[in-house]
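for the writeup, i need someone to sanity check this before i put it in the appendix. the sequnce is what the collaborator sent (i think, or maybe the updated version? ugh). structure was predicted straight from it, no edits. if anything looks off just tell me and ill rerun, i have time this weekend
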Amino acid sequence: MRVMSAPKSINEVMFLRFKSGDEQAFEKIFKSDYNAIVGFCCQFIGDYDIAKGHAQEAFINLWTNRQKIESVNGIKSFLYTYAKSACLNYIRHKKVISRYQDKQLQKIENQLNMDVLESFDFNSLEFTELENLIQASVDSLPEKCQRVFIMSRFEGKKNKEIAEELGISVKSVEANITRSLNAIKRKLSDYLVICVLQIIWLFF
């Protein structure tokens, strides 16, 4: 089951049109990359509506700063870097709030999310590889987990709506979402470990 279609490549002509202020070129870029940016944010902050807000802000800032983008690849670099920063700020804000709450598990999850996000270098990362990894992570989930996750994170449905539609309890929905997020985060973390090992191998 696919939740994000493979992004269509932006050619040099389209890039130059975007740089010159062509709104149709910008719309093509938006349609190409929006779902991937929302999906990326969802893996770390776990809230579909907030993830959409971060993604939309990323594109607004991309348009505002289009003259600073030097290449086609710079578009994805800007979008993912902005999304990373927005997610980190959101997690830091949650950590400040959680200091006044007794939620140790939430603190641990927030720290894990920060550690993974801070490790990403979007100036050198292969974006297609990252997007494929996120998609493969979703595809590898058990059928029920995958369905619940897609309905929650990519269709924007509330837990109660999902429970009613699938004929399961709200607690079961929450458990499946948590299981899905943990599985996806593990795969992203494993990817970072592989990147580090590759760098060590190259230099030592």
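The CA atoms of residues 107 and 167 lie 32 Å apart. Confidence is low (pLDDT under 50) at residues 1-8, 193-204.
thx in advance!!
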